[in-house]
Each structure stands twice: as structure tokens, then as C-alpha cells.
Amino acid sequence: MIAPRPEDLERPDCALCGPGPATAPRHAFPPFAVVACAQCSLVFLSPRLVAPRMMELYQDASYWDSEVGGRGYDEYLDVRGNWIRTFQRRLREIAPHCAPARVLDVGCGPGFFVEAARAAGWDAWGIDPSTYAVSLAKRALGDRVSVGVVEASGHAPGSFDLVTAFDAFEHVYEPRRFLDAAHGLLRPGGVLAITTPDVTSLLARASGRRWVSFKIPEHVYYWSPLTIREALAPHFDVLAVRRAGQYATVGFLLRRALGIGPGSAAWLRRAADRLSRLSLYADNGSLTAIARRRS
């Protein structure tokens, strides 16, 4: 856990309601806390790191292969095959709403979705704020991936048929600006697909403050089917909101469920390592929202 200075922290307003509504505490992760807006029920981190400090974390190579429980992406780079299978499944869910054409993956990380989409016939591009992740993606994808954010992507307005944000929207500090930018990059009738943790999921409710998606401090918003529909409403027609998951190794699931890390018993760590050879599809308490740009 980062030990921030007082000047590194801020208390944001609700992204949907703005200033005014009170917040109710949900869970404490000192010096951070998860709260809920009393007016719209949106759940978010307050206080949170200021954005420049958060960006520093994403540049760290260890973030993409973290051994710190609840931080970064445990074994992400080692299980490329599982992520490709996960993204193939998400593309099949999008297929009824958008035929293969031009797609931008926002928060592309090391580029696994861009790889999967290209193999499925898409003209796929990616963008990510992490220079380290993009350097990895460029090995296979070259200039199809770039460092940046959707609000300043460098791509022409209306140049994409699909914009995806898989496991990225929970990191976004200004969701309204993000959605405005995605809307601008889509052609009229284009599709936006977002997968993000669902704070109302059975897994979230059963886990309480131990929910695996309470990744502090990088997850700053926790959406639900209700709040994500409200966020999309100004510019998009929602086509579907459904439960989501991912292919993962059994070892990964065991580590996350039991909080196994460097300080855990050696026999537990060995068991998790052995079970990392087996993979399965698991509901991880996320949702996928698919929406069409309103002309």
C-alpha cells in the first residue's frame, strides 16, 4: 500500500451528481475510504490519490506482475493465453451489435485485446497511459498501440466503429469526460463496450471489504448496472448490461480468495504455484455494458 503525503490526497465529488450530496462510508482502507453517494448510490474512493501520483504507479513494471495482494495485476503477463480467451469471449458478446471493423481499446495494457481482435478480423488499435505496458505491446503490434488517454488519443473524431474499455473504467478519474471522448471517437451508431467491477454483484456483497476488486488506490469508482446506465444515458443507448468474468488459473483464484502473498506460508504459495497450470472461466463480480452512440 502506498503511504501518501497529505498533499497527495483529494476528496472528489460524485461523478454523476457533482458537489452537494452527502456520502455514506462503506469501507475504510486508511488513509483511503470507499464511500457511496447518498443521492445516486455511486460508490467511489474518497479520499483518493491525486491523478499525477496515480499515474506514477502505472509506470512501474511491477504493477503488471504484482506480488502485493490487491494491487496491480498478479501474473497478468504470464497468462497471455487466458486473457486472449477472455477477450475472444467478450468479442463474441459484442458481435450481435457490431460487425468486425475498426476498434480502439482504451487501457490496452500489453495489448492482448488488440491481438485477439486482429486475429478475429478487426482493424484494432490500442492506447494506454503506461509507457511500460505500451513498450511491451509494441513488440507485437508496433505503432498500433500508443501512450496516452482517450481524451487526447490523437485519433480522428468519428474514426472508430467500436471503443472498448475492459477493466479500465474503474481507474478513470473523470468518467463523464471519458464518455464524452469515447462518444467523439465513435462514428454515429458506433458501439462502446465497458467491462468493470460490479459493486452490487453477489461476489462483492459476500466478500465485503475483502472483495478482490477493492484494489486500493488504483480503483477509484465502483459501478453497478444502475449507475453505469445513468453515466451512459446522456450520449448512448444501452443495449445490454450483463455479468462478466475472465479465464484465470486456479492458482490465481486461490491467491486472490485467500490473500496468498510473499508473507504467506510456503506450502500455500507452493500449492498456488502448482495450481497455476490449470485454468477455468470464473465470474469475478464484474459487469459488461454495451451501448450504442446516439447520433
Pick out its properties.
295 residues; alpha/beta; 7-stranded mixed β-sheet; 4-stranded antiparallel β-sheet; 13 strands; globular
General description of the model:
The protein is α/β, with parallel strands linked by helices and 295 residues long. The chain has a domain at 52-248 and 286-293: Vaccinia Virus protein VP39 (Rossmann fold, 3-Layer(aba) Sandwich), CATH 3.40.50.150. 29% of the residues lie in helices and 28% in strands. The protein has nine helices and 13 strands. The protein has helices at 51-58, 80-94, 112-119, 131-141, 175-185, 202-207, 225-232, 250-258, 266-274, and strands spanning 9-10, 23-29, 32-37, 43-45, 48-49, 102-106, 123-128, 145-147, 160-166, 186-197, 221-222, 236-249, 279-293. Strands 8-7-6-9-10-13-12 form a seven-stranded mixed sheet, sandwiched between helices. The chain has a four-stranded antiparallel sheet with strand order 2-3-4-11, with no helix packed on it. A hairpin with a 5-residue loop joins β3 and β4. α2 crosses α3 (112-119) and α8 (250-258) packs antiparallel against α9 (266-274). The longest helix is centred in the first third of the chain and has 15 residues, at 80-94. The radius of gyration is 18 Å and the shape is globular. The model is unreliable at 66-74 (pLDDT under 50).
